[in-house]
Amino acid sequence: MMGYRYSAINKLHLQFFASGSLKGLLRASLTYTSPALLYSTSSIIGEKPILVRDFIQSALYDPNHGYFSQRSGSVGLLEKSIKFNQLEGRRAYLQYLDDIYKQNEISWFTPVELFKPWYAHGIAEAIMRTANFSVPLKIYEIGGGSGTCAKCIMDYIMLNAPERVYKNMTYTSVEISSSLAKQQLETVGEVRSHLSKFRVECRDATDPSGWGDVDSQPCWVIMLEVLDNLPHDIIYSGNQVSPWLEVWLEKQHDNAHVSEVYKPIQDPLIGRCIEIINLDKDNSTMGSSAVSTAKSIWSKVFPKPRRSWIPTGCLKLLEVLHGALPKMSLIASDFSYLPDVSIPGERAPLVSTKKDGKSSDLKSYLDAKGDSDIFFPTDFWLLERIDHYCSGSVSLWKDKSSKKGKKRRTITLGTDQFMGEFGLPSKTRTKDGYNPLLDDFKNTKFYISVPTHNTK
């Protein structure tokens, strides 16, 4: 589930290419899907209803029909780095992107690939400034793509860290795609000395059994563009004061259509996610009875249904990671905002497909039939709450009077801030000063989280 990346122009420059003639370039990069590969929405659902997250999991990752399973060998790998300082400016850069996509018709490129080695070098520098070198450096990457991030990080550490750090380090990629796992070994193996320190574990990172025994040693976990494709659930409320209900999907009597069914909250993962978000604060007993009565009257006169997409996939992953690697430090990057989302609900996804050479956004997630990418914005405020919750700082919400300190030190930075602090922005700047790495990523952020012993 974690091993896949987005169609680069469609996601990478989503905000930048939102309008005008550039939209054609944005749409041109989506991967074509043969109609023979499609399967109906109703075929995902058996005789029993399923949760929305299970529908999304199947639509994206089903081994035979899922969107990413059909594209697991299509992650782009550039033969050479882009020489940004040889490009005149924005127009020349866009033309260069157009050319490489025409040359690599079935591929998409991640930021770490388009901006190699500088994107990964920024991440490596952030690790080096924070890592405890009194113990061997241990890095995990969830979904390593083509292996470029791993290779470039190991290159940087080999050239810039003390010799013993590189000599004793290990780098593990947790990758669900067997074809990408093979590609990663080939990419990293371009530097022979890296191979003795690198390994790929072909498995699902959200499966706790794959992690084995708890590893209490300090380590780093890297997740680049992973959160946006993690399954989500939907919760629904009929008005402003009614309790939240979880959404299930079931076949209608004709077995050709699927409908949503609303049930009281019973799924443990959804329940924990709601507790973390504190979405039911409006239904709490806190506050005056007059206010509660006013809200109740208002909701009856002007009822307004509520829908919210909740990141249960993210919660599940972080629960597993914190359980397996309690002293991990985390670096994650993803979209903080997606424009032009027509699907209803807070934190709703974009669902994008391409047929007959033309791309379009679907108006319903239920229209995803193996030919559609489903990707979500990341609520970084909520990501931080989930991170603290999974680290064991439950008292932050359950007992506000507790003086127990947080177990994590966290910070969220815009991509331009992160790269300005840890990267080398001059390396991705064109002749006229335009810098796509800093200028085009206004809707993306980095999240850094490190453990602390401040528990008093």
TrEMBL record:
Keywords: Methyltransferase, Mitochondrion, Transferase
Superkingdom, natural source: Eukaryota
GO function terms (MF aspect): protein-arginine omega-N symmetric methyltransferase activity
Compartment(s): Mitochondrion
Principal subcellular localisation of the protein: mitochondrion
Entry keyword Transferase: yes
Pfam family, one: Methyltransf_28
Entry EC no(s): 2.1.1.320
Gene Ontology annotations for the cellular component aspect, listed alphabetically: mitochondrion
Keyword ATP-binding: no
Catalytic activity: L-arginyl-[protein] + 2 S-adenosyl-L-methionine = N(omega),N(omega)'-dimethyl-L-arginyl-[protein] + 2 S-adenosyl-L-homocysteine + 2 H(+)
EC top class, as a word: transferase
Biological process per Gene Ontology, one example term: methylation
Similarity comment: Belongs to the NDUFAF7 family.
PANTHER family: PROTEIN ARGININE METHYLTRANSFERASE NDUFAF7 HOMOLOG, MITOCHONDRIAL, PROTEIN ARGININE METHYLTRANSFERASE NDUFAF7, MITOCHONDRIAL
Protein role: Arginine methyltransferase involved in the assembly or stability of mitochondrial NADH:ubiquinone oxidoreductase complex (complex I).
Name listed for the protein in its UniProt record: Protein arginine methyltransferase NDUFAF7
Species per Swiss-Prot/TrEMBL record: Aquilegia coerulea
Lineage of the species this protein comes from: Eukaryota, Viridiplantae, Streptophyta, Embryophyta, Tracheophyta
